[in-house]
Write a structure and sequence with these properties.
The protein is α+β, with helices and mostly antiparallel strands. Helices cover 31% and strands 38% of the residues. It contains 2 helices and 5 strands. It has helices at residues 7-19, 46-58; strands at residues 25-31, 37-43, 61-65, 69-71, 74-83. Strands 1, 2, 3, 4 and 5 form a 5-stranded antiparallel beta sheet that branches. The chain is globular, with a radius of gyration of 12 Å.
Length: 84
Amino acid sequence: RGAGAGFLATQAAVASAVEATTSGEISGLSFDPDGTMRATIRAQGQPELEAIRNALSMRGFSVIEGVPANVQGRMEVQLQVRPR
């Protein structure tokens, strides 16, 4: 299970939020002992990344977004996701 909401619940929320976008994909995932999930997300642009962040917030998670970067013509960012 792990700390926070647990690995499976947090991973399910991240996967669901990413799948709801047309161009989102998870390119990296880790789970810290304190319950923070670090998800590296790629999407077509900033609007899709914002939609993912908003979807996670609506599911009861706080999201800290790293600095977006352009990787192979797509936006990539690391999100730190944990329950509020």
